Amino acid sequence: MPKRIGNIYQNAIKFEKFKSAYERTSVSKKNKIDRIKFGMYLEDNIYKMGVELKEKTYEVGKYKMFKVYIPKERVIYCLDFYDRVVQQWYVYEFILPYMVKKFIVDSYACIKGRGVHSAINKLQKYMRIAKRRWEEPYVLKYDIKKFFYSIDQKILYEIMCKYYKDKDFLELTKKFIQFGPEGEKCKEFGIGIPIGNYTSQFFANIYMNELDQYIKRELKVEYYIRYMDDGVMILENKEKAKEILIKIEKFVNERLNLKFNRKTSYFPLKVGVIFCGYKIYTTHKLLKRANIKRMKRRIRTWNKKYETADVEDIKSWKQSFWAWKGYAKEAEKYTLYNRLEKSCKWIDCER
Fold this sequence. Notes:
Layout: H1 15-26, H2 33-40, H3 42-54, E1 64-68, E2 74-78, H4 81-95, H5 116-133, E3 138-143, H6 147-150, H7 153-163, H8 167-177, H9 198-218, E4 223-227, E5 230-235, H10 238-255, E6 265-268, E7 273-275, E8 278-280, E9 285-287, H11 289-307, H12 314-329, H13 334-343
Antiparallel strand pairs: 1-2, 3-5, 3-6, 4-5, 7-8, 8-9
Helix pairs in contact: 1-4, 7-8, 7-9
């Protein structure tokens, strides 16, 4: 049992901490109406927030729901600006200072300095080491079925209680965890946490850290990497991969109340590994074909809108394409991303 963290909640209720949370939340919301309204009465809103949190009368607001369809259909839940500021404060004051250092070094999602590129580079490094070390190494790759929708809220809360003992903090934590399938407030624990909540990505990491610790500490797997609910480990042979799969599937089912999806499998390292949108080999990396096709479709859509004067925000188109270009560069596809850039008819537009 780890040493539990206490006496943190009331000490974090300070004006400057809420103001910092507001500034972080505002970074990508400068022109949003709810941010402008909040900022117009900034001191009053921060004072109200402090009183509600100190007296424990704060309640999570109503969720807005919408769907996204890329890369697959998902329901996204969005809170008002006020609640997003509270969640920023919560994560920066209580989660980042205490929990990140408890994660394994090869957990890469939602951790500063550990992004997609770091994950795929480390995986390729492990693949090269394994190839030199073993005659025919195998890769075991798992993926959780409907991950965010399947997280058991009661188990998540019990995990939080394992690390924290501050009752005020845990009471607020329970309010963020308890969540109904339609975004309604719940007084009982259920299944699933909302995609879109700032807290959810960190709760998901804390939840999966239980599996990480089991794989590293009990099963003693040396070459293992996880990015959110996708995990990859490299083992000495097929028999070892089969043995480890049986053990981790049992742990996931019984301890976390989750299930692996059909993508979970083991295979020879020499065929390459699909991970974080790349096909990774010991010698090189390639973008997944689906990723390239998706960007081509988006460019065709943007070009069509540009040609018909149905122009939205060209700046956002450019930002989206440049972000993808930075992503593509990792796979050394110079001719590909430059050819696609030339096909963007609006790329030199100053708007």
